[in-house]
Amino acid sequence: MNTIHSIERIYNIREKEMNEAQAQYQRAIDYFEEQATELFQLLKKKETLQERFDNRLKGRVTITYIHAAHDSIQRIEKEEKALQTKVHQARVNMKQKENQLKVAHLEMKKMEKLIQLKKEELKEFAKKKEAEFMDEISMQQYFRTR
């Protein structure tokens, strides 16, 4: 019986670890989504700016406008590269957290199985002791009646 309580304590620890891993994984997902959304918005902004620039080039434009538009596009491209790096790092972190969650879940399932096996062993032991006790009573009754 003591063994089951010890295993249950370990199970509770594993469950807490899994819950923490789940929370970390969710935070990683949220951060990834945030970064990916920011990148998406930046790409939309860049596309709009390029379309506007291309449309303006069909007409008369000043050299100052061309320089300003070019600078804006370059600035956005720098931001894009930085965000792509953040998105990639967030994706890698998210995958690591997912793997940690899988490991924590697996460890918890192992503990569940171990508890189940120990309880079954305990039941079998109790049945065996009960059968031995009943045999002993039967033998005592048999010898008393003789």
Automatic annotation (TrEMBL):
The keyword Transmembrane does not apply. It is a peripheral membrane protein. It is found in: Cell membrane. Keywords: Bacterial flagellum biogenesis, Bacterial flagellum protein export, Cell membrane, Cell projection, Chemotaxis, Cilium, Coiled coil, Flagellum, Membrane, Protein transport, Transport. Residues 73-128 form a coiled coil. Gene3D superfamilies: 1.10.287.1700. It comes from the Bacteria. Pfam families: FliJ. Belongs to the FliJ family. This is Flagellar FliJ protein. It comes from Allobacillus halotolerans. The lineage of its organism: Bacteria, Bacillati, Bacillota, Bacilli, Bacillales.
